[in-house]
UniProtKB/TrEMBL annotation:
Molecular function GO terms recorded: DNA binding
PANTHER family named among the record's database cross-references: HTH-TYPE TRANSCRIPTIONAL REGULATOR YODB, TRANSCRIPTIONAL REGULATOR, MARR FAMILY
SUPFAM superfamilies, alphabetized: Winged helix' DNA-binding domain
Keywords assigned: DNA-binding, Transcription, Transcription regulation
Classification via Gene3D superfamilies: Winged helix-like DNA-binding domain superfamily/Winged helix DNA-binding domain (1.10.10.10)
Pfam families linked: HxlR (PF01638)
PROSITE patterns named among the record's database cross-references: HTH_HXLR
Domain HTH hxlR-type, first and last residues per copy: 8-109
Protein name: HTH-type transcriptional activator HxlR
Origin: domain of life: Bacteria
Length: 109
């Protein structure tokens, strides 16, 4: 295989990895809310997303935290409160999302 094909294969694998991070019904919505204001507490984020179900939001937040896109900070209050914010990696992801939006506006409108 020549170097062009190998490079294409590497790019495909990387793109697939990025898309895997972005998969999920609520991922874009969560990132959009955190891009507007952060940090956000769980219930504040949930309200801004139209009172989505708790399990769906929890799963989305765990997925993004596992991929180091968001940071989860726990406060030792009663009851425990948690807030979420974008990591540096998450902030860079916003640049990718903006580029995807531009491409969509140009080619899909």
């Amino acid at each position: 295989m020549d170097s062009t094909m190998a490079s294409c294969g590497d790019n495909t694998a990387l793109a697939r990895s990025v898309l895997k991070i972005l998969e999920g019904k609520w991922t874009f919505h969560v990132l959009a809310q955190l891009s507007k204001k952060q940090p956000l507490r769980f219930n504040e984020l949930r309200r801004q997303l139209g009172n989505m179900n708790t399990k769906g939001l929890t799963d989305t937040l765990r997925h993004l935290e596992k991929n180091e896109i968001i940071d989860r900070e726990v406060f030792p209050t009663v009851p425990v409160s948690v807030q979420y914010s974008l990591t540096p990696k998450g902030l860079e992801m916003l640049v990718v999302l903006a580029a995807m939006k531009q491409w969509g506006q140009k080619w899909l409108s």
